[in-house]
Amino acid sequence: MLALWLGAAAPGASAQTLAQPANTVILEVSSATSAPNSGPIAQFDLAMLDALPQRETVTSTPWYDGPQTFSGPLLSDLLNTLGVQGTTVRAVAINDYAVDIPVSDLLDYPVILASRHNGNLMSVRDKGPLFVVFPFDEVPSLNNEVYYARSAWQVRHIEVLP
Ligand SMILES: Nc1nc2c(c(=O)[nH]1)N[C@H]1C(S)=C(S)[C@@H](COP(=O)(O)O)O[C@H]1N2
Ligand SMILES: [Mo]
C-alpha cells in the first residue's frame, strides 16, 4: 500500500493550532489513525475554509448546462493544514453518499472543495455547502464515470483513511 504524506507536519501536530470555528460547522475532518473516540480532528466553519488559499476552475460538468465557475480551497491544502497522513480521502455527504478518493488524485490534479458556484454560496438544494470539483475542462481525461462518482456534493465530512 502506498502511504503518502500530505505536508511536512508531524501527524496531528498542527490540529491544535487550528482556529476554533466561531460559526456553524460545515465540515468535519477525521482520521482513521486517530483514536476511535477522539471525535473529529478538525471542524471548519466557512470563514476557516475561506482563510485557506482559494482555487478556481471554470469547467463543464454533467450536472449543469455549459461551463460553470467553482471555487474554494484545494483538498490537498486542506489536508496539508491538518498534517494528516493517509492514502484515501473518503468524502461523506449529508445524504450519506460516500465515495473514496485516492490521495494520488489530490497530488495529480487541483481538486477543489468548492464552497462557491459562480461566486455564490451553494444551498443544500444546489449541491452545497461543499462540492468536490475536479477540473474536467483543464484535464479532459477526467471525464468518465470514475471521476463523476468522486464528485461528491453536499459534503459534510471528510475521513482520511490509512
Ligand atoms: N451527495 C452526492 N453526491 C454524488 C452522488 C450522490 O448520490 N450524492 N452521486 C455520485 C455519482 S455515483 C455520480 S456518477 C455523480 C452523478 O450523479 P447523477 O447521475 O445523479 O448526476 O454524482 C456523484 N455525487
Ligand atoms: Mo455514478
From TrEMBL:
Q: What is this protein called?
A: Oxidoreductase molybdopterin-binding domain-containing protein
Domain of life assignment: Bacteria
Lineage of this protein's species? Bacteria, Pseudomonadati, Pseudomonadota, Alphaproteobacteria, Rhodobacterales
Q: Which Gene3D superfamilies match?
A: Oxidoreductase, molybdopterin-binding domain
Q: Where is the Oxidoreductase molybdopterin-binding domain?
A: 58-135
Q: Name one Pfam family in it.
A: Oxidored_molyb
Cleaved signal peptide residues? 1-19
Quote the SUPFAM superfamilies the UniProt record gives.
Oxidoreductase molybdopterin-binding domain
Q: Which UniProt keywords apply?
A: Signal
